[in-house]
From TrEMBL:
Compartments where found: Cytoplasm
Enzyme nomenclature, EC number: 6.1.1.23
Domain Aminoacyl-transfer RNA synthetases class-II family profile per the UniProt entry, residue ranges: 140-554
Similarity comment: Belongs to the class-II aminoacyl-tRNA synthetase family. Type 1 subfamily.
GO molecular function: ligase activity
Species of origin: Vreelandella lutescens
Binding locations of L-aspartate: 173, 219, 448, 488
Reaction(s) catalysed by this chain's protein: tRNA(Asx) + L-aspartate + ATP = L-aspartyl-tRNA(Asx) + AMP + diphosphate
Name of the molecule in the record: Aspartate--tRNA(Asp/Asn) ligase
Enzyme class: ligase
Stretches for region Aspartate: 197-200
Keyword ATP-binding in annotation: yes
């Protein structure tokens, strides 16, 4: 129906006849001559319709915003003084000969140019309108380029694209499963996969050696800006590899991706242990663009007569950390109070601080409600954090977990609020994660998943599981975890040991993972892999604030779809087929009786 897209029209087509199809972006009537800005997925172009072409003029005259038109005309240069060099099609216009209205359109719920004035709920309700915006088209176009680039790279590296099941059985991987009732197996349920983890390991046992998949994954968990109930994962697994092999392959992939898609040469990917990341930044995904670090001051605070500090400093699970902010003494008391409220979100009971106004004056040059409690250690404290005039020092004192989360988050917020970024992109690898983490009751759970290989023998693992490290690695970019992976357990004895430590008995392990344990008996090779969050990757590369901006049809924060009103109720007949009876209906029937 067309010869060109709107965005393809340029000076090379002058005097040629073209036909385009698209939507009316804007209509202007200038003294009997109608100008139509036509839009399609490739861009916007200007069309001129004059009264000499009566039928075309009449159709253009009745056209309104978002009408679907087909226009044929001759490309010509715009008159001097009306050209727009900032627009790809801004040097030309098309003198229309034929204008055909393919479809009319109701007044849209919002103007595409004014989308910022409407709430996100309105845009999600009418997502098909929102997706017409050029910036949304560009985001999804770039997402397509990223997926294509990833596929091409992995295929060139000998990886095979293999699909794995979407209907499987529930397995514990850190989040609630989405369950699907089975009609043919009454009372039984499928689960949607949280990841293709077990199947890609089975593919390694089967000898496929190098596998990848751009896979849909599902997790029934509370949402955040970078979480959705269904998300897309670049899933990678390989046999006969060690950590450096997987990290090398995937780092090269990300480097090539940024180079070819964004023309960005990423800097060195430093490696940092999990412990170092937590000590220095309070996070296992530190944003290295921000030149602020946490400093341990436990030994100093043990010497002060101030239990808010000395208590956590002396406790086995406590920590006192200082965060120096260069130039931060200019912060007002109101701003400091706001930061105090902010760290409270993470469980901090308060936020102590010292302003360094004139260090040469000693205590008289410091401003703080707490400095009187630490006169004996204040000079050593200032030396340790490298404090200078005009700085502010914030303190976190509590359980180590709370301090890390609160002051780590404060570090990131200060970096954004004070624009402290030193570079645009800051990648790194975080390695040597703990094998397990303990809850408040001391119960161990896997920090990643129960199929991650430890860096010790089964005997050493059993002897002191809390101190065991795993062979896991995460790629981090600008404070966001792009992807995580590990070398997997490929010996049945080691897998059984991990299950035992996690309190998964032999019978439960056989019930939930029998097929994996069986497979590990039949010559499972050493293997490992990594999975990237495609949505997060695209979000970072396009500069979006949430992954909802780079998913065509996302869910809301409450895991619903405003456009389709999903999830929705189903009929009684459907429930009966599935042998399901809803609790509220049972109560209603009982009340009626």
């Amino acid at each position: 129906m067309r010869s060109h897209y709107c965005g393809q029209l340029n000076e090379t087509l002058v005097d040629q006849t073209v036909t385009v199809c698209g939507w009316v972006h804007r209509r202007r009537d200038h003294g009997g001559v109608i100008f139509l800005d036509m839009r399609d997925r490739d861009g916007i172009a200007q069309f001129v319709v004059d009264p000499d072409t009566a039928e075309a003029f009449a159709n253009a005259d009745r056209a309104r915003s978002e009408y679907v038109l087909r226009i044929t005309g001759r490309v010509r240069l715009r008159p001097e003084g009306t050209q727009n060099p900032n627009m790809p099609t801004g040097m030309i216009e098309v003198l229309a000969k034929e204008v055909e209205v393919l479809n009319t359109a109701a007044t849209p719920p919002f103007q595409l140019d004014d989308h910022g004035k409407v709430g996100e709920e309105v845009r999600l309700k009418h997502r098909y309108i929102d997706l017409r915006r050029p910036d949304m088209i560009e985001k999804l176009r770039l997402r397509s380029r990223i997926s294509h680039n990833v596929r091409a790279y992995l295929e060139n590296q000998g990886f095979l694209d293999i699909e794995t099941p979407v209907l499987t059985r529930a397995t514990p991987e850190g989040a609630r499963d989405y369950l699907v009732p089975s009609r043919t197996h009454a009372g039984s349920f499928f689960a949607l996969p949280q990841s293709p983890q077990l199947f890609k390991q089975l593919l390694m046992v089967a000898g496929f050696d190098r596998y990848y998949q751009i896979a849909k994954c599902f997790r029934d968990e509370d949402l955040r800006a970078d979480r959705q109930p269904e998300f897309t994962q670049i899933d990678i697994e390989a046999s006969f590899v060690e950590e450096d092999d997987i990290m090398g392959i995937t780092e090269a992939m990300i480097r090539q991706l940024f180079q070819e898609v964004l023309n960005v040469e990423l800097s060195e990917f430093p490696r940092m242990t999990w412990q170092e990341a937590m000590d220095r930044f309070g996070s296992d995904k530190p944003d290295l663009r921000i030149p602020l670090e946490l400093t341990d001051v436990d030994d100093l605070m043990q010497q002060v007569d101030f239990k808010v500090f000395s208590g956590p400093a002396s406790a086995d699970d406590g920590r006192v950390a200082a965060l120096k902010v260069p130039g931060g003494a200019k912060l007002s008391r109101k701003e400091i109070d706001e930061y105090t409220k902010f760290v409270g979100i993470y469980g901090a009971k308060g936020l102590a601080w010292i302003k360094v106004n004139e260090r040469a004056k000693g205590l008289d040059g410091l401003q703080s409600p707490i400095v009187k409690f630490m006169e004996n250690i204040v000079e050593e404290l200032l030396d340790r954090v490298g404090a200078e005039d005009g700085d502010i020092i914030f303190f976190g004192a509590d359980k180590a977990r709370i301090v890390n989360e609160a002051i780590g988050a404060l570090r990131v917020k200060l970096g954004a609020d004070l624009d402290l970024y030193t570079q645009e992109w800051a990648p790194l690898w975080v390695v040597d994660f703990p094998m397990f983490e303990a809850d408040d009751n001391g119960r161990l759970s896997p920090l990643h998943h129960p199929f991650t290989a430890p860096s010790c023998s089964p005997e050493e693992l059993k002897a002191d599981p809390a101190k065991a490290l795993s062979r896991a690695y995460d790629m981090v970019l600008n404070g966001t975890e792009l992807g995580g992976g590990s070398i997997r357990i490929h010996h049945q004895a080691m897998q059984s040991t991990v299950f035992e430590i996690l309190g998964i008995g032999e019978e439960e392990a056989r019930e939930k993972f029998g097929f994996l344990l069986d497979a590990l008996q039949y010559g499972a090779p050493p293997h490992g892999g990594l999975a990237f969050g495609l949505d997060r990757l695209v979000m970072l590369m396009v500069g979006a604030k949430t992954i909802r901006e780079v998913i065509a049809f996302p869910k809301t924060q409450s895991a619903g779809c405003l456009m389709t009103d999903a999830p929705g109720e189903v009929s009684a007949d459907q429930l009966k087929e599935l042998n399901i009876r809803l609790r509220q209906k049972v109560k209603a029937e009982s009340a009626a009786e």
